[in-house]
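quick q for whoever's on today - can somebody do inverse folding on this one?? i tried earlier but teh output was garbage lol. tokens:
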């Protein structure tokens, strides 16, 4: 097969499984406490299995992985933003002092381009580099074992392969620091092959991926804190007491320290980046991670006020609290897809549009289709939040995850949307919103492009509009590929 970017994407896609397996025997877990005896029921998805063998086949030892000087981050909400803030602080310090000079970042999912998942110094790795390193990994793993007595090795699945590619890329590119976001859990996550991180962190916890992580918040906390390692200080935002107790137990079990980080009241004033409390909390956590990393790797270095100000100012995270100015229209894109995140998205939208100088109409574009979450509950939560903030939109447009009206899509779109039962669910959403707000103009569009075109027409007729696009990462990614088609080579 020709070593092309397109072929790399096809081979990667061939490793995607149809559905995530569900953890068995979750009903047997003690609901009062999570103790070591419960771990047998907390089997999770064994994505970690095979990672060490595959890394060895790629020619890497545990020391090679440890040498990446890793910050390992798990949690339910805010993982990506915390990773990006940590990267931004380390980059700011490196720009001033020369160290770290090269910072790698591995996150998921991507919104516009698969290469977003593996970044070096704020940029997705180029197509040429992605292609070269992908085929190096693919061909080494596909190569037969030289010893006949060794049984054939099973091949990694989609996310496992991406994590292996990230390790390979960062080692080959000789990064000074690498920030890794877990995929779903922690204890059994493929990224937990990291044995000696420099520092670990847990962002806000909530009930998500319950089929894999368990039916209680204590189960979730147990899984996420599986990234704690001896000797690597652990940090967490403040949690509710029950999951916090699980985190303390796991820290003691792993022979490490755990510190709960409050919101830092000394952060710079930056309404664009820190206009919602959740981002200030993620930023506060990231600041402590960057400080701990420097203390371990360069004790003579400290983050000064200029590093912090530059880190906040240069922060960027596609599809999360992202605003775009387009003539008289202001677009506010956030991939919120659970009730808490939607409440935060509503507050952010209103904080940035509810000013005396802003007398434009508000438009909401929403889409959510998922077997794991109740879409009606999400619509209800968003409507409640906007109503409480006295910011109900005049126009509401429900749509699907289909991007373009002609059915085409960008070649490197790997965030595969599920089947969308349009128009059934959109019709239900439309009916629900009309019951909540009879004054709003509510409609549905078959594609994201159609929804954006309609919003632009309304904006032109009304002399400008403020448009909130939220409900799903699929929607956020599709919207950005249309609103910013020049970025990352999307078409």
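ok took a stab at it. sequence:
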């Amino acid at each position: 097969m020709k070593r092309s970017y397109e072929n790399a994407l096809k081979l990667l896609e061939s490793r995607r499984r149809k559905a995530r397996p569900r953890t068995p025997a979750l009903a047997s877990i003690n609901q009062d406490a999570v103790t070591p005896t419960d771990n047998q029921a907390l089997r999770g998805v064994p994505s970690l299995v095979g990672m060490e063998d595959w890394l060895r086949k790629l020619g890497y030892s545990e020391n090679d992985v440890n040498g990446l000087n890793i910050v390992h981050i798990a949690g339910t909400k805010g993982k990506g933003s915390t990773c990006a803030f940590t990267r931004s602080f380390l980059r700011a310090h490196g720009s001033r002092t020369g160290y770290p000079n090269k910072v790698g970042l591995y996150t998921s999912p991507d919104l516009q381009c698969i290469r977003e998942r593996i970044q070096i110094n704020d940029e997705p790795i180029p197509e040429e580099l992605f292609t070269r390193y992908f085929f190096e990994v693919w061909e080494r793993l596909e190569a037969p074992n030289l010893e006949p007595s060794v049984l054939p090795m099973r091949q990694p699945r989609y996310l496992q392969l991406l994590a292996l590619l990230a390790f390979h890329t960062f080692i080959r590119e000789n990064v000074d620091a690498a920030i890794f976001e877990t995929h779903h859990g922690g204890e059994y996550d493929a990224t937990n092959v990291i044995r000696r991180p420099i520092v670990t962190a847990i962002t806000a916890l909530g009930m998500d991926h319950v089929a894999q992580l368990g039916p209680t918040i204590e189960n979730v906390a147990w899984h996420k804190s599986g990234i704690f390692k001896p000797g690597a200080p652990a940090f967490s935002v403040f949690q509710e007491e029950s999951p916090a107790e699980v985190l303390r137990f796991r820290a003691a079990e792993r022979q490490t320290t755990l510190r709960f980080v409050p919101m830092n009241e000394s952060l710079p004033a930056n309404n664009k980046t820190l206009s919602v409390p959740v981002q200030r909390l993620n930023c506060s956590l990231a600041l402590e991670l960057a400080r701990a990393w420097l203390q371990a790797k360069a004790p003579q270095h400290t983050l000064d006020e200029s590093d912090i100000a530059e880190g906040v100012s240069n922060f960027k995270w596609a599809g999360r609290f992202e605003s775009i100015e387009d003539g008289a229209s202001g677009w506010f894109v956030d991939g919120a897809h659970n009730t808490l995140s939607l409440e935060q998205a509503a507050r952010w939208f209103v904080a940035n549009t509810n000013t005396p100088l802003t007398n434009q109409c508000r438009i909401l574009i929403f889409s959510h289709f998922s077997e794991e979450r109740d879409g009606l509950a999400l619509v209800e939560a968003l409507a409640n939040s906007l109503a409480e903030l006295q910011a109900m939109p005049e126009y509401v447009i429900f749509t699907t995850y289909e991007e373009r009206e002609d059915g085409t899509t960008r070649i490197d779109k790997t965030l595969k949307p599920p089947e969308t039962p349009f128009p059934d669910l959109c019709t239900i959403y439309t009916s629900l919103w009309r019951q909540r707000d009879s004054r709003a103009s509510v409609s549905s569009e078959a594609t994201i492009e159609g929804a954006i075109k309609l919003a632009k027409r309304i904006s032109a007729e009304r002399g400008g509009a403020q448009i909130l696009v939220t409900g799903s990462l699929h929607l956020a990614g599709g919207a950005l590929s249309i609103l910013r088609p020049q970025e990352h080579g999307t078409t």
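fwiw Residues 5-313 form a domain with the UDP-N-acetylmuramoyl-L-alanine:D-glutamate ligase fold (CATH 3.40.1190.10). also Residues 23-45 have pLDDT under 50 and may be disordered. so keep that in mind when u check it
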